[in-house]
Amino acid sequence: MTVAAIFAILNILIHFLYNMVEKLNRLKVEKKLKTIGMTVFTPVEFGGIFNVSANTASMFISRNLASGLFIKLRNNYYILEDSDTPLFFIANKLYQPSYVSLEKALFYYGIIPEFVYSITSVTTKATRDFNTGLGNFSYQKIKQEAFTGYKLTSVEGQRVLLAEKEKALADYLYFVDLKQTSLNDRLNLKKINKNKLLYYVKLFNHPSLLNLVAKIYAGEKKIRRIY
Predict the structure, then answer these.
(1) Domain that residue 35 falls in
(2) How much of the chain is in helix, strand and coil states, percent to nearest 5?
(3) Comparing C-alpha atoms, which of 78, 73, 185, 176 is closest to residue 119?
(4) CATH of the domain at 27
(5) Burial environment of residue 156 by CB neighbours within 10 A (0 to 12, 13 to 18, 19 or more)
(6) How far is residue 123's CA from residue 71's CA, in Å, rounded to a whole number?
(7) 119-132 pLDDT per residue, tens
(8) pTM of the model
């Protein structure tokens, strides 16, 4: 095959891709993504929705990043800019498998009083941190045996994977025990089922973690006697 023939084929392919991109109407794309609830997506998922190749999807997405239709969250993950997608849902989608836990979940449940800006989650994959235009999303690794205690919960009208109160606290105390974070001295343990907490704590198989829980509850009893 001659060089001229190769360039001719490439031009045909480029022309074909641009024609496919032009067929993706911006307004129709936005409407369909909102209708089916696919506001966070990869190029492969986008291509499947609109029956185009991943390359065509990537080209359309790239062309519409500058226009403000989409926001890039991380490599190969995008969000419809005008979508009001809950941050918890974005966290679930951005790095899988994962569920929202730790400080963000504890604040959500009223276990700690301080507002938490970062969306904190746990995963069985490597620890990661993503800074996006919508906020910071952090993921801490835990062992597979402890990756449980979460459920689908409705948050801002969207179903998200969120740790139960006791599991969020167990996850948090695990990293306190590892000295990777400091202990909040204003934990509201009245909302916690202690037996359930101990069940989740034991999944980490860290004797020192059990000792930490015992010290926290012992300290709470002393405070109650003082007041």
Answers:
(1) 3-80
(2) 50, 20, 30
(3) 73
(4) 1.10.10
(5) exposed
(6) 24
(7) 999 999 999 999 99
(8) 0.85
